[in-house]
Each structure stands twice: as structure tokens, then as C-alpha cells.
Write a structure and sequence with these properties.
Helix content is 29%, strand content 25%. It has seven helices and eleven strands. The chain has helices at residues 30-49, 66-76, 95-98, 103-106, 125-135, 185-193, 208-217, and strands at residues 4-7, 13-17, 22-23, 55-60, 83-88, 142-145, 148-153, 166-171, 195-203, 220-225, 232-237. The chain has an eight-stranded mixed beta sheet, sandwiched between helices. Strands 1-2-3 form a three-stranded antiparallel beta sheet, with no helix packed on it. Strand 1 and strand 2 (13-17) form a beta hairpin. Helix 1 (30-49) packs across helix 2 (66-76) and helix 2 (66-76) packs across helix 5 (125-135). It is globular.
């Protein structure tokens, strides 16, 4: 599978798949999109509701590892709770592509003092964390920092038999018109059953048919302002 590295408007990288005519992230800003959709309106929103609770995250589409890295970094700001991060990916990227991605330099986290992060990992915090996320063995939970672990699952969402329950779901599959099998009522029903009461699902997609499907299943829908270049996004809440 051929991947083309593309620089987005915020200067961070995304990948382009010619056979799908699809990008992994928004061309208006890969980091900006992930920060807005998944960190601000997902992780930070949930943490503000439950400030002392350890958090289980399930990401649909590990991809470049950007969402995992941003979640780890946000967790460093709140060392008194843990994040167990599970993520599923049917088509892992080759290391030669991962090594070219510029997230650590664009986030300015290549040394101890950047962004005010503490220094338990020593020099090269961001670089080492990103490498560790990608070198972690598939299908086995791995501790990355004292309060962040990752469980990368090499499987399709259709095939997996979920055994855990989650507080937050990052739904970051390719767009419905490119990957319709990921946006079905059956998929969202499976995720709803494995979301804790009060848990949330966030996604960049705000199509009407997706909102209607989520409502039919039992989610309460919030339509929020989207990231740069996109008018809206969805936060779906499992009330009980």
C-alpha cells in the first residue's frame, strides 16, 4: 500500500492514500484537528466531568499514532490519574513511514523544557514517547509512562470481540463515503454496548445520517464547532 506524506496547513504531516483518494487527517491541520476533536472535546471534556477517575480510551483507527501521542502528553499534565489507551488498526503503517512524520518537532516536545512538561522521561521526551508508542508490541498492553499504557490491537472492528468497557471512544475511521463498512448501525451498537454510562464518543464526522444512526441506538447527540476547515463535529453521550 502506497502512502504519500503531505504537509497540512498547520505544517504537521498527514498521509495520503491514492487508491482511496483520502487523507489520514485534515489537510487544514492534522495536529489542530486531533487536538480539537479528540483532546479538547473528548479527553478534556470527560476529565472535567470526572476529574478523579482513571480513564479507559478506545480509539478506532490507530493510523499514525497522533491521537495516542497527544493523549499521552495531555496525561502528563494530570499525573494523578491513569489512562489505559486501547486502539485498533487493521493496516499498521510501515516503520519507514512513521520515522518520517514530524509530529514531535511540530509539537515542540523534543526536549524536557518544551511546553512545560515535567522530565521523568529525561531528554527527548516527545521523541522517545512517540517511538515507544510505535514500537510497543501488538495485541499486548504496554506501559509507556507511569500513568499511560497502550494496547494496540491488530484486527478489524468487525471481527474483534470486545471484552472491556470504555469511558471515551475516539472514532477516527476514514470518511463514510470511503469506508462505509465502519459507519454502520451494527458497528455503533457494538461500541454503545462497550461504553460506560456517562461515556462519550467523539468523531470529526457530522453527517446527518450518522447523527440519526447514533440517536437510534440511544446516544444523546451534541453537534459542536468543528476544527479548522470543518463546520461541525459530533460528541455522542451514553447517558445511562
Amino acid at each position: 500500500m502506497y502512502h504519500q506524506i503531505v504537509t497540512t496547513k498547520d505544517q504537521s504531516h498527514t498521509l495520503f492514500l491514492p487508491h482511496l483518494n483520502e487523507h489520514y487527517h485534515s489537510i487544514h491541520g492534522a495536529v489542530q484537528e486531533s487536538q480539537h476533536v479528540f483532546i479538547k472535546n473528548g479527553l478534556e471534556y470527560f476529565r472535567n466531568l470526572s476529574p478523579t477517575k482513571n480513564i479507559n480510551v478506545f480509539e478506532i483507527g490507530f493510523g499514525t499514532g497522533l491521537n495516542a501521542l497527544l493523549t499521552l502528553l495531555k496525561g502528563l499534565e494530570y499525573p494523578h490519574f491513569t489512562i489505559a489507551y486501547s486502539t485498533i488498526e487493521a493496516y499498521p503503517l510501515p516503520q519507514e513511514i512513521i520515522q518520517q512524520l514530524n509530529y514531535t518537532s511540530q509539537l515542540n516536545i523534543e526536549n524536557d523544557n518544551s511546553k512545560g512538561f515535567p522530565s521523568p522521561l529525561g531528554e527527548g521526551l516527545g521523541v522517545r514517547a512517540f517511538k515507544h508508542i510505535h514500537s510497543a508490541e501488538w495485541n499486548k498492553p504496554t506501559e509507556i509512562t507511569s500513568n499511560f499504557s497502550i494496547h494496540k490491537i491488530h484486527q478489524t472492528l468487525q471481527q474483534i470481540q470486545l471484552s472491556e468497557t470504555y469511558d471515551i471512544i475516539f472514532f477516527d475511521a476514514f470518511a463514510p463515503e470511503k469506508q462505509p463498512e465502519m459507519w454502520t448501525k451494527e458497528i455503533f451498537q457494538k461500541l454503545f454496548l462497550h461504553l460506560n454510562a456517562g461515556g462519550i464518543l467523539v468523531t470529526y464526522c457530522a453527517k446527518g445520517i450518522i447523527k440519526r444512526t447514533l440517536k437510534e441506538i440511544g446516544f444523546t447527540i451534541e453537534t459542536l464547532q468543528g476544527p479548522p476547515g470543518k463546520r461541525e463535529m459530533i460528541r455522542a453521550i451514553k447517558i445511562s
